[in-house]
Design brief:
There is one protein chain. By secondary structure, the chain is mainly α. It is 46% helix and 2% strand. Helix 1 packs across helix 11, helix 3 runs antiparallel to helix 9 and helix 10 crosses helix 12. The longest helix is centred in the middle third of the chain and has 19 residues.
Length: 300
């Protein structure tokens, strides 16, 4: 058909013809990737627990503090020892009875005497021993530099001397290397959590040991969690049963006001020793019984 239009191939109507007479293939379109989702910050489990407790068991914390105070009173903070003595005494108490730690500390005083001012350490206020008579702290440089066997012998009355002696010397060595002497008085001028972080850099010093030192030497608002504080808190329901020791420390800090921590620590320890025993707790005379989830799983 001269002068006419060339008919489109069958099935090709409406498609443009390419240079070689074939159809132009439509360029494939790339699937658009969905916009990247912003990662949500994981919720803080400590704050989440505190909010849950406030919502599901209102007034639990004040009720516990009031119940404990009804039989143990309102203990006021007093300084027990200087911070270096407090650190070493606390290391001596690790996995040992407080009375044995006292004997080991007294033995150190005798083996490594100093001419420093006397320190006092009375019984009570969360301490399970008999208390230490007033006396000068050991000569910490002599303790640090003593032959290991000599220090082991000096602290043998406290138990686990082979493990604790090198730990004590390492702690004293680190303090002197960083500070020039063995004084820890500078910690009292630091924010509580910064001071705790500084101490936990020392091998063998965890949050509990650091918190004990800072609370009892300086009155800093920290909450040492030993086995008694942990047990009572778990039974009542202040801390979840699966919380580890470090989490328990942070949970108590979230639940308590700074001016409540000393009293709470001392009274919880006392309660764990006198009534809420690990075995055969005396629930019949416990002021926390109405709110205790150990006694009643549905307690309010």
């Amino acid at each position: 058909m001269a002068g006419g239009l060339t008919p489109a191939p069958a099935g090709g109507a409406g498609k443009p013809v390419g240079p070689a007479g074939g159809s132009r293939a439509k360029a494939p379109t790339r699937a658009r990737k969905p916009a990247a989702k912003r990662r949500r910050k994981a919720p803080d489990p400590v704050q989440a627990w505190a909010r849950r407790l406030a919502r599901t068991r209102p007034n639990l914390v004040p009720d516990v503090l009031h119940g404990l105070a009804s039989i143990y009173g309102h203990p006021a903070w007093i300084r027990r020892l200087g911070p270096t003595s407090e650190l070493i005494l606390t290391i001596l108490t690790q996995n040992s009875a407080d009375t044995n730690a006292e004997r080991a500390f007294e033995s150190m005083r005798a083996a490594f005497p100093s001419t420093e001012p006397a320190e006092s350490h009375e019984a009570g206020h969360g301490w399970g021993g008999l208390g230490l008579p007033a006396g000068a702290p050991p000569d910490w440089l002599a303790v640090e530099e003593a032959p290991l066997a000599e220090l082991v012998e000096a602290i043998r009355p406290g138990g686990l001397a082979q493990q604790k002696a090198p730990r004590i010397q390492a702690a004293l060595r680190l303090i002197r290397a960083e500070r020039g002497d063995h004084s820890l008085e500078f910690l009292g001028e630091m924010p509580a959590l910064e001071a705790r972080d500084w101490l936990t850099r020392i091998d063998g010093v965890g949050r509990k040991t650091a918190s004990v030192l800072l609370m009892f030497s300086f009155g800093l608002p920290l909450m040492p969690v030993d086995r008694h504080v942990e047990r009572v808190g778990w039974r009542v329901g202040l801390i979840p049963p699966k919380a580890n020791a470090d989490q328990a420390h942070e949970i108590y800090l979230a639940l308590l006001e700074p001016d409540q921590m000393y009293e709470a620590h001392v009274n919880l320890i006392t309660h764990g020793r006198q009534i809420c025993h690990a075995r055969n707790p005396e629930c019949g005379r416990c002021p926390l019984a109405p709110r205790c989830r150990y006694l009643d799983r549905k307690a309010p």
